[in-house]
Description:
- The protein is of the alpha+beta class.
- The protein has helices at 3-33, 119-133, 150-171, 196-202; strands spanning 80-83, 89-93, 97-103, 137-143, 178-183, 204-210.
- It has a six-stranded mixed sheet with strand order 1-2-3-6-4-5.
Amino acid sequence: MSAAMASRTRRASISAVAAVLLCTSMQFTMAAGARADEGPSVPPGTEATSPPPEVDGNATGLKLRAGATLAPAKVLDIVSVVESEGGEERREDTSDSVKFALQAEVLFSKDSAKLSPDANSRISAIANEAKKQGATTIRVFGFTDNLGSSAHGDILSRQRADAVHGVLQQQLSSAGITYEIRGYGEDYPIADNSSEEGRKKNRRVEVSFPRGVSPSDGSQNDSSQS
């Protein structure tokens, strides 16, 4: 075999090996990227903040096919929202649940999970409403703005949620309530993080619970039984 032919043979072999290695590498990369996120995509009780998509009412794709009919009308929940003048406290009521959102500044010092002197009275008011509603499950979620590292925000938001939970548990110690406590950090903002006003709204603790049967009614939900 000539030297030229031998050289071509070696180059062909090297190319074949490189192709095999490239395919193998692509397979590993695709397998790793295809792994699903097992965590919750949206915290329960937290509404999406992105604006609704614009819809062209004249688009041909919106026309019904021949013989098609519209689905029955559905009555949506009416949401009642009450917010303090400065936005420090917010309450949302639906026919099924109650949610309170307290800005971090009214509960904690800056970058701290230690409750302020006025925090207990604010949390006690929420506890009283939970009693009134006969709540058997309470969710306590902490959130931060996007300043600082994401890891720090995750830890701080959880610590703040834990602090609020501690007061609720003391106030409702005899109610047999189940709690769900989470810290979501900078995820799921409710305002624009590009301004301090927006970041202030995002630094919050949310307490929510489904409506039950008030103890004053002389009856309890089946879900309250242990």
